[in-house]
Amino acid sequence: MPYPNQSQQNDFNIRKVIEKLSSRPEQPLSKVFSKEDLYLPQHDAYLVASDLGDKMKISQIRKIFDMVEQAALLARNDKFEKAQETIFMVVPNVAYATGRGLVEPQSFNDLMQMCINTKRIKTNEDIETLFRFLQSIVAYKKK
Question: Among candidates 77, 76, 75, which has minimal Cα distance to 121?
């Protein structure tokens, strides 16, 4: 088996989470991530944050997180349609930032596309799950 190149080594954990999502294509986000995946060290959010390392500035993650937080607030106020629209706006924003080299590695963009789509974001609980996932990533990134 060949050794992974440097860029593959730097996003190994993000790719693992993407594979997990890919293996459950029809499941909403709240059914894919367990509480352990969202919060505990050595689980999904922690591993994604560890792959981001110094490559991506915390300010870029915060911009994404702020949009998701806004959507979560709307969802908590039973404004699902508006919350879903706000969440869906994250995808082109991350793609744009990736294109400008502000979001690295590229696989983070892939991860956001896997997390944010019509099959994953079906309920307020799915929006809250994405919020908690990114909240933990921000926390572990600042660690």
Answer: 75
Q: Which of 34-48, 53-67, 88-102, 119-133 has the lowest mean pLDDT?
A: 53-67
- What residue spans define the domains of the chain? 11-142
Which one, of 2, 3, 17, 1, lies nearest residue 105 by Cα? 17
CB 60 within 8 A of CB 108: no
Residues constituting the chain: 143
**Per-residue pLDDT at 1:** 35
Determine which helix (DSSP H) or strand (DSSP E) holds 95, and give its type and residue range.
helix 80-99
Q: Got the DSSP string for 31-52?
A: HHS-HHHHHSTTSHHHHHHHHH
The chain-wide mean pLDDT, for the chain, equals: 91
Top-confidence residue, 16 or 53: 16
Q: Which of 13, 98, 4, 97 is nearest to 52 (CA)?
A: 13
C-alpha of 142 from chain center = 16
